[in-house]
Design goal:
The structure holds three protein chains of three kinds. By secondary structure, chain A is α+β, with helices and mostly antiparallel strands. Chain A has 18 helices and 20 strands. Chain B is an alpha+beta fold. A five-stranded mixed β-sheet of chain B has the order 2-1-5-3-4. Chain B has a two-stranded antiparallel sheet with strand order 6-7. By secondary structure, chain C is mainly alpha-helical. Chain C has one domain: Fumarate reductase/succinate dehydrogenase, transmembrane subunit (3 helical TM bundles of succinate and fumarate reductases), CATH 1.20.1300. Chain C is 79% helix and 0% strand. Chain C contains eight helices and no strands. The chains are: A alpha+beta, B alpha+beta, C mainly alpha. At the A-B interface, helix 3, helix 5, helix 6, helix 12 and helix 13 of A face helix 1, helix 2 and helix 3 of B.
């Protein structure tokens, strides 16, 4: 029996959440005024949690490293947010959203959590509209929907190509209201450097004021970590430059188990790397796959010629192109889930069919969509016998209306016109399904320490469906955590303010300052980025889209060696008691150097292929699915939760067996 | 390409700053402007000097963190981009580039090229919200139909990323485009009507208190805005303000 | 004056309204001036009316003077505040890349107009006031046209007037159209309104210039 208690309520799946809400303890409004909550991270999960907790009456302190909560990286989400509203009448329901999410996650998530997510998804949309989020609408004034990869209904709500920004501004506006009331005290340009535990419970944090370098103590009755994912362990990812694992990792070192670290989502449609100077990758929304067709040349010589600039993609005829997704997955075609599309692109490029200078890019072509829309438009707008140019022009207009901002972004970065020549795309690290292990109440294994949004592991299993990250962040923050945290805080109504002049805070602060002096005191040969890039290379090559035992073992050793070198030779200029971005980066990379090792260890342990985790040793040997990922439900139907034991490689594995009572486990087939 | 950079260096808010010259070599056209600065910083770190501090985060033009007045224009000479999306192919070998922080009394320099834009946050704290509880027990989303044009206009106003280019570009360091975008988003939606009067008065009042200059309709903000926020929003806010003043 | 109207938007609207009022006055002034080119009698008649009608003299004139003073003083108050809003200047500032010279230099075109008003008052208004209310000189309804011609005798003065009108045009080019935006007028008629304002800001100052030159040559 595992020491992990997921605290999933009893009863039928659809009633669990309602029943749970009805039976957990509440805190009376007068007592809430005496209870403090710290929320670290102000993205969709943190921002919405902070606003809701403050609205309920708790005293909330928020922390973010950015200069404003509104800049958290949730802002970069483009495509949309799922909700089982069934406004389109296409047969959607809570159950279907639940089912799609479990299946999309390759049966590696908790049924109860996912069902709750589906249940509250509709409320999110109601809430956001009431807040003034300007979702896209139809001419009748009602909300518009679009469809996303891996599902058969249209349930995605969107605000052009910047749904994330609009939802975050909504959560931020809710925060504004509470800041104005004095119920939220925002600490911007502050970074959490450690979690403080008193009597085994999370009771505060140590934070660094990034402007002055001052180390501050903040106490609270509970600490919520909503600090996002750790994709930057790969150096190049679609995450923001500052996105980091520090808060989660510090909590992990203090006793919070880290779950499924190896589950990484590699998004198929990113702008390819252009050179060594590259600092970050840019995503092109998955919605592009609704209209774009993905291909590489059929003949390797053609690919070679394109790479050398001797041939243009538009010169290749239909017969000379390999629409490999349509060929391999006739049922879903270009709309297969992200992990499948990414691996297929890598497979083609590894075989030598890549189409840019670096050989790591495939085409996303809108030519046939332009023709199709052009003809349709000509027909509906009554243009008789349209010429080829007219059709192209009309079609381009339709495409521009749908994806104009994305095309413009592409052109600015790549300096090619995607209306005239196919886009080039390549997979990139985008999201991490793994994170701090939490129970049904979103509490980590440290009492009083909660994790929400991408920072926890809870809802997406081994692969996240498009437009579900925003849904989960807001569900956790608006509708789950504010209830469940009350159950815990109800014990604290008589506790009184937590003092910060105690031995526990002294110890934590000492730990933090020692670490900073150690970072500042390196003998100074290489910059922080030098190590970060090296780590990224190891991760990408050995823990990336496909993994094998040999590579993972090498990765563990290489990362450990790199970490040792880092602590000896890193060079951090400037001082600790002033604004010092290099010091900030150094602290974050130091944690990535530990997490990376645990990541590889977890990937090594999981000798099956599931979702975003692909082990070369575990593939279907024959039949229609030959060569596709092979899941092993008999041996790996569990959540791996790692307990910190000093070095990452010594971490102890705890297994939470996943129980599927409502869904039959099947092989994911998109053929 | 090789470039001469004239960069504003300032130790902290209380120190005096100055322009310092730097040379960078081997810059490629495919680099973003910030990646060019990364190259410079790597050089400086190797030499044991403090790297140039600047705000940046998402590097895909949406978080609004990056700023920089480049050759006298916020986010540089390209249009509808933020500094992180500005690519070096817009410059030529041998160019001299001035890089300064966004300048405004309301945006004090934190260090080097990084400024404190919390004035924008305080304007939003003052009234940038609709007072609705986050209980989820609001009415169904489709119970409030919104005219598509209004919804689209509200969205256009809401695309503001709060970077401060409008203030930096304005000869008066006025924050009218930012504030009006925030006011407009709510003013255009039925949900925002209830508090419209108080909102515009409170937000304009806060904007004035922060020490921004006055709008003289030069239109520089609209041209330099990386999201193309329209001057129409300022006209709308003026209208809303006059209406509100008469009421309240 | 700044104390009465505190908020930035209220001041902006007040600048626009006083500006629009002055634009209207310009039109009226120009209409009378124009008659001098065609008929000395009509000019005399109108000038006599304006100079002696108690409503014009004791109601409209003070309002106009107040309007002028308000527009100038508020203009200075705002300019000072705006200068203070950017304490440290840019080492390099490319205003020309995003805005017109006219829009950025309203204070300078305004100062030239202010200087011109000094000259203009010295030329016409002060002698008028002295004539009527200090010296109590007898009213002669035909004196206006000869006085006018006399003023435009000097090529230097005529030249100064012409230059001033050029600056007036520059000031109007931005100011007139901009006042619509300030009062919140931004709709489907805005494009036409702006075109009208731009045309006005060329035609009226040009008209003043032609009248000045014609008068100079007539003499």
């Amino acid at each position: 029996m595992s020491i992990l208690d997921s605290k999933i309520p009893e009863g039928p799946l659809a009633d669990k959440w309602t029943k749970h809400k009805n039976t957990i303890n509440l805190v009376n409004p007068a007592n809430k005024r005496n209870i403090d909550v710290i929320v670290v991270g102000t993205g969709l999960a943190g921002g919405s949690a902070a606003a809701t907790l403050a609205e309920l009456g708790y005293n909330v302190k928020t922390f973010c490293y950015q200069d404003s909560p509104r800049r958290a990286h949730s802002i970069a989400a483009q495509g949309g947010i799922n909700a089982a509203k069934n406004y389109q009448g296409d047969g959607d329901s809570n159950y279907r959203l639940f089912y799609d999410t479990i299946k999309g996650g390759d049966y590696r998530s908790r049924e109860a959590n996912v069902h709750r997510l589906a249940e509250v998804s509709g409320n999110i949309i109601d809430q956001c509209v009431a807040q003034g989020v300007p979702f896209a609408r139809e001419y009748g004034g009602l909300l518009d929907n679009r469809s996303f990869g891996g599902v058969l209904v249209s349930r995605t709500f969107y605000a052009k190509g910047q749904t994330g920004q609009q939802l975050l501004l909504g959560a931020y506006s809710a925060m504004n209201r509470q800041i104005n009331r004095g119920k939220i005290q925002p600490f911007n340009r502050h970074e959490m450097l450690d979690l403080v535990k008193v009597d085994g419970k999370a009771r505060g944090i140590i934070a660094r004021n990034l402007v002055t370098g001052e180390i501050e103590r903040h106490s609270a009755h509970a600490v919520v970590l909503a600090t996002g994912g750790y994709g930057n362990v790969f150096f190049l990812s679609t995450n923001a430059m500052g996105s980091n694992v520090m808060a989660a990792w510090r909590a992990h070192r203090r006793g919070a188990f880290f779950a499924n670290p190896c589950y990484t989502q590699i998004h198929p449609t990113c702008i390819p790397v252009s050179g060594d100077h590259q600092s970050k990758l840019t995503l092109m929304s998955e919605s592009l796959r609704n209209d774009g067709r993905i291909w590489v040349p059929k003949r390797i010589e053609d690919a070679q010629a394109i790479r050398e600039g001797k041939l243009k993609p538009t010169q290749l005829s239909e017969d000379e192109r390999d629409y490999y997704l349509e060929r391999r997955y006739p049922a879903f075609g270009n709309l297969v889930p992200r992990d499948v599309a990414s691996r297929a692109a890598k497979e083609r490029c590894d075989e030598g069919f890549g189409v840019n200078k670096t050989g790591e890019a495939v085409y996303l072509d809108f030519a046939s969509a332009i023709q199709r829309y052009g003809k349709e438009k000509a027909l509906t707008s009554g243009v008789e016998n349209p010429s080829a140019e007219e059709i192209t022009k009309l079609g381009e207009k339709v495409i521009e209306d749908k994806y104009g901002n994305l095309f413009q972004m592409y052109e600015k970065i790549v300096d090619e016109d995607p209306y005239k020549t196919p886009m080039m795309i390549y997979p990139a690290v985008h999201y991490t399904m793994g994170g701090l292990w939490v129970d049904y109440n979103l509490q980590t294994t440290i009492p009083g320490c909660y994790a929400a949004g991408e920072a926890n592991f809870s809802d997406h299993g081994a692969n996240r469906l498009g437009a579900s990250a925003l849904m989960q962040g807001l569900a956790d923050g608006y509708f789950v955590l504010p209830y469940t945290i009350g159950d815990y805080l109800s014990q604290d109504i008589r506790t009184g303010k937590i003092p910060t002049d105690t031995a526990e805070f002294d110890e934590a602060e000492k730990h933090v300052t020692e670490r900073i002096s150690k970072l500042m005191g390196g003998s100074g040969e290489h910059s922080v980025d030098y190590y970060h890039k090296k780590l990224g290379k190891i991760m990408w090559n050995k823990c990336g889209m496909s993994r094998n035992e040999k590579g993972l073992k090498e990765a563990i050793d290489e990362i450990a060696a790199l970490r040792e070198d880092f602590w000896k030779n890193v060079k951090v200029p400037g001082t600790a008691n002033s604004m010092n971005p290099e010091l900030e980066k150094a602290g974050r990379v130091a944690d990535f150097l530990e997490l990376g090792e645990l990541f590889a260890k977890d990937a090594l342990d999981r000798r099956e292929s599931c979702g975003g985790h692909f082990r070369e040793e575990s593939v279907e040997q024959d039949g229609e699915q030959k060569g596709e990922a092979l899941r092993d439900d008999k041996n790996f139907k569990y959540v791996s939760a790692w307990e910190y034991k000093g070095e990452p490689k010594d971490a102890e594995l705890h297994k939470e067996e996943l129980v599927f009572e409502n869904i039959e486990l099947k092989t994911r087939s998109y053929k | 390409m090789n470039l001469t950079l004239k960069i504003w260096r300032q130790k902290d808010a209380n120190s005096k700053g100055a322009i310092v010259d730097y040379q960078v070599q081997g810059i490629e056209g495919d680099m973003s402007f910030l990646e060019m600065l990364d190259v410079l910083n790597e050089q400086l770190i190797t030499k044991g000097e403090e790297p140039v501090v600047f705000d940046h985060d998402c590097r895909e033009g949406i978080c609004g963190a990056c700023s920089l007045q480049i050759n006298g224009e916020p986010h540089g000479p390209d249009r509808l981009v933020t500094t992180c999306q500005l690519h070096m192919r817009k410059f030529n070998d041998g160019d001299t580039i001035y890089i300064e922080p966004f300048r405004a009394k309301a945006f004090p320099v934190v260090k080097d090229l990084m400024v404190d834009r919390s004035a924008f946050d305080r304007i939003q704290h003052a009234g940038g919200y609709i007072s609705v509880n986050t209980s989820g027990n609001t009415i169904d989303a489709n119970a409030i139909p919104v005219n598509k044009q209004d919804a689209d206009d509200a969205f256009s106003a809401a695309t503001c990323i709060g970077c401060g280019a409008c203030v930096a570009a304005c000869k008066n360091a006025s924050a009218m485009l930012f504030t009006s975008a925030k006011v407009s988003q709510f003013a255009l939606l039925p949900q925002g009507q209830v508090e419209a009067t108080d909102r515009v008065l409170a937000m304009v009042n806060q904007m004035d208190e922060e020490g921004f200059g006055n709008c003289t309709n030069t239109g520089a903000c609209e041209i330099e805005c990386p999201k193309g926020i329209s001057l129409e929003n300022i006209a709308r806010m003026n209208r809303e303000y006059v209406k509100a003043s008469m009421k309240g | 004056m700044g104390g009465l109207i505190q908020s930035s938007i209220a001041r902006k609207v007040a600048m626009a309204l006083s500006g629009l009022f002055l634009v209207f006055f310009l039109l009226q002034h120009f209409t009378i001036n124009l008659t001098s080119v065609f008929s000395a009698d009509v000019f005399n008649e109108l000038s006599h009316f304006m100079g002696t009608n108690p409503l014009v003299q004791f109601a409209l004139q003070p309002v106009l003077i107040f309007g002028v003073l308000f527009h100038f003083i508020m203009g200075f108050v705002l300019e000072l505040k705006n200068k203070k809003a950017r304490a440290v200047k840019y080492a390099k500032y490319s205003g020309g890349a995003n805005s017109s010279w006219m829009s950025r230099n309203m204070i300078y075109s305004g100062l030239v107009i202010l200087a011109f008003l000094g000259l203009h008052f010295y030329d016409f208004w002060i002698p008028e006031m002295v004539h009527k209310y200090v010296a109590f000189a007898p009213e002669d309804p035909t004196r206006y046209y000869p006085e006018l011609l006399h003023r435009f005798e000097s090529p230097v003065r005529t030249g100064l007037y012409v230059v001033s009108f050029v600056f007036l045009a520059l000031h109007l080019w931005h100011g007139f159209a901009s006042s619509f935006q300030s009062v919140g007028f931004n709709n489907k008629y805005s494009v036409s309104a702006t075109k009208f304002a731009k045309a006005f800001s060329i035609v009226i100052p040009l008209g003043f210039i032609i009248v000045a030159i014609v008068l100079h040559l007539t003499h």
